[in-house]
Design goal:
Largest sheet: none
Number of helices: 9
Radius of gyration: 18 Å
Order of helices and strands: HHHHHHHHH
Shape: globular
Helix content: over 70%
Distance between the termini: 54 Å
Length: 186
């Protein structure tokens, strides 16, 4: 007989439901911004597979927008690496504050580190997890939902960019506008 008590999935529903509810505010923003990225990438001559690969393997919204210009402009590897470091340097501060929470994350740790975006950080920095839920599984699911929203938006944008004629003038400014709007509210 197995006497080891397994953690419950939390009151009022499972950990999956709780993680989805926590991540839901990111859904609309990621899908809309992802669509913009997918359209911009398609307009630069890169198709659906590029959009899927970049959103799944890079998962860095602002850097992906910058990456379109780097790809289209034929930037060198050194230039791309330096740009990536400068654009994403803020993540060093996020990660430092999450060291304690991620220390014992076990099998989830590599993905939690990879998926720590601005929005995911803002959802997880309070350290709250549902009662009785495995905190590492919960953080993993919040991060995974956020990435799924982003990938969905990027793929939709690529499909829409191929199917409908879009003028992409000014779309590259959307990430800058998002950061300015976020900063202004702070």
């Amino acid at each position: 007989m197995d006497t080891e008590k397994k953690p419950s999935l939390g009151a009022g529903g499972g950990v999956v439901k709780k993680a989805f509810i926590k991540s839901a505010p990111v859904l609309a923003g990621y899908v809309v911004l992802g669509i913009g990225f997918g359209i911009l990438l398609r307009d630069a001559g890169y198709g659906l597979l590029w959009s899927l690969a970049m959103s799944a393997l890079i998962f860095a919204g602002s850097m992906q927008y910058v990456g379109v210009g780097l790809l289209a402009g034929g930037a060198s590897l050194i230039s791309a690496a330096l740009t990536t470091f400068m654009v994403n340097a803020r993540h060093l501060f996020y990660s430092i504050s999450m060291i304690g929470r991620y220390r014992d994350a076990g099998k989830y740790k590599p993905y939690l580190i990879f998926a720590l975006t601005d929005e995911t950080y803002s959802l997880l920095c309070d350290g709250e997890t549902p009662d009785g839920a495995d905190p590492n599984l919960y953080r993993f699911l919040v991060s995974l939902f956020d990435q799924c929203y982003w990938v969905t938006g990027c793929v939709l944008g690529s499909v829409l960019g191929a199917a409908l004629p879009f003028g992409t003038e000014g779309i590259e400014f959307s990430m800058t506008a998002l950061f300015v709007a976020s900063f202004t509210e702070q």
